[in-house]
Amino acid sequence: MNARKGLAAVVAAVAIAALAFAGAAPAYAAKGKPGGGGGGKELAYVALGDSFAAGQGGGSYLDTSCYRSSNSYPKRLDALRTLKLTAFPACSGASTVETLASQVPSIPAGTQRVTLTVGGNDVGFASVMQNCFVFISATTCEANLATAEAMVNDGTMYDRIESVLQAIRAKVGAQAKIVVVGYPKLFHLPSNYAYASRVNADTGALNDVAEAAAAANGAAFVDVETAFTGHGIGSSSPWINGFSIFNTSAAFHPNSTGYANYATLVGPALG
User: Fold this and answer.
1) SS3 137
2) Catalytic residue (choose from 69, 92, 191, 253)
C-alpha cells in the first residue's frame, strides 16, 4: 500500500504532490560498503517499487526526486555483508506501470536477489490518503475506495503484479530469488479516523493479492502486517508517520524505526 512539492489551497497542493510524486528517476547506483566491506561472497541485490521501497518517510534522503532514503529497508539490507545493493531504482509514486517501464530494464546483469514493493499507487494511495484523511471529502473518499477495492477484487491488481514479476524473472533468470514485500496496515485501531478500519482492511486485501501472485510466480512474500501491529498511526509507539503540514512528504509512510523493522523481516527471506 506507497507513496511533491504552498496555506489552504497551497497546503493541499503540497500534500497531494508529496503523496503522489510520479515518474521514476534514473536508478541510484549503490556504492561499496564503508571501510572496504563487501567482497565476492556478497549477493548482487536490486530494490524495485514505490515509496515504501524507496524509504520515503525515513529521512536522510539520497535524493528528493524519488525520496530514496539511507534508512530505507534496501539500504539497511545493503549494510549486511551478504548483500550488495547494485541498483536502487525504487521511486516514490511508481506504480506497476513505471516499475515495468523504467525499473525492471535497469536491473544489472548478474543480479541474484530482487525485492519488490508495488501496487499501492495503482489503487490510488495518494488520492485515498488525501481525500479520506487530510482534506476529507466523504463522497470522493468513498469513490476512491470503491475504485481501489474493485481493482483488488476483480483481478486487476493480481494481473499487474504478476506482469511485473514475470518481467523481473525474464530479466534475472531462474536462479535469482525474488521477494515481494507487503505493506503495513497504517492505522492503530480503534482510530479517530472514520476510514481507518476500512483502509486497513483494504491494505490487507492488497497484500493477499500480492502474496498470491508471488506464490504463483516463483517468488517469496514477506508479510509485515503482524510486526507493525500496535505501531500504526495513533499508537503510543508509531512506526508510521501521521500527517503534518510541516513534513508532508513523510505522511502515511514508515519512519526510520519502521524501515529498520522492515529490513529485519526481509533480510532472512533474501537468504
Assistant:
1) coil
2) 253
Q: How far apart are CA 87 and CA 108, in angstroms?
A: 7
pLDDT one-digit tens code per residue, 57-75: 999 999 999 999 999 999 9
CB 233 within 8 A of CB 252: yes
d(CA 256, CA 109): 31
Based on the number of CB atoms within 10 Å of its own CB, is 17 exposed (0-12), middle (13-18) or buried (19 or more)?
Answer: middle
Cell numbers linked to 2: 506507497
Per-residue pLDDT tens over the stretch 130-184: 999 999 999 999 999 999 999 999 999 999 999 999 999 999 999 999 999 999 9
DSSP string, 51-98: HHHHTTTS-SBS-SSS--BTTSHHHHHHTSTTEEEEEB---TT--HHH
Residue 51 annotated as catalytic? yes
Question: Looking at 51, 65, 72, 249, which residue is catalytic?
Answer: 51
- Please confirm, yes or no, whether 253 is among the known catalytic residues: yes
How many C-beta atoms lie closer than 10 Å to residue 39's C-beta?
Answer: 10
